[in-house]
């Protein structure tokens, strides 16, 4: 019988900070435009973590059902895969996903009824993107659309959704700020897929990294990092976002170190160390938004 710890590990909790950062950014932009509803923010965080967990669990379930994940897969080497490591059966994993989606839907409906009906549409788009990421008949992750979807979900969708809960409208400022962070979250998947080019090709799936090859993928990887930082500078120069947003530049040394590491060889922990850059960038962005609220310039 699986323990609570087994179910918890199956959700990949180390990936949750990226979702929390996205909704915190949206909430803080909203807080700079009016009063902040802390209970709503707490529910958004709880709902987005349940949503992220459900997506991870369902992803592992279908990857195993379609034999994409096998005992020699790279993903099984660096983390305990819930089915391959025999923590849970496929049926138990699917049940966990359904429960987590249920929690997400319950919170989403409450937020939609209580704070903003816009949450309903944001949630519906997110739900479809989450399920059909690997579920048939769409399975768009296996058709090189994974990075694009991740950038959209962790960028505009989550940031604007969190903003809408507080203000009941969408925001251009929130949209602008969501673009670079969403791109950096997609970078985690790109790093993962670049490392796994040979394995994924053997399994018969298509990723951007397979289409571009390792050299082309590294060019895209470098370009996305450069675009994230340059877009922040450009948005400040155009007065679209607060100058405090330039705090993200403090994470540049981490980005340079990452690029040097990838230039030598794609690391085994490619996605994990890329996620560290996302966290640094996101935390600094949050710091800038807090300063903008306390000390507006």
SSE layout and pairing:
Elements: H1 4-10, H2 16-31, H3 38-65, H4 74-78, H5 90-114, H6 118-131, H7 146-167, H8 172-195, H9 197-202, H10 208-237, H11 252-264, H12 270-294
Helix pairs in contact: 2-3, 2-7, 2-8, 2-12, 3-5, 3-7, 5-6, 6-7, 7-8, 8-10, 8-12, 10-11, 11-12
Residues in helix, %: over 70%
In what range is the share of β-strand residues?
under 5%
Poorly predicted runs: none
The rounded Rg comes to 19 Å
Q: What is the distance, rounded to the nearest whole angstrom, between the alpha carbons of the first and last residues?
A: 57 Å
Count of strand segments = 0
> How many DSSP H or I helices?
12
Order of helices and strands: HHHHHHHHHHHH
Main structural class: mainly alpha
Mean pLDDT across every amino acid position: 94
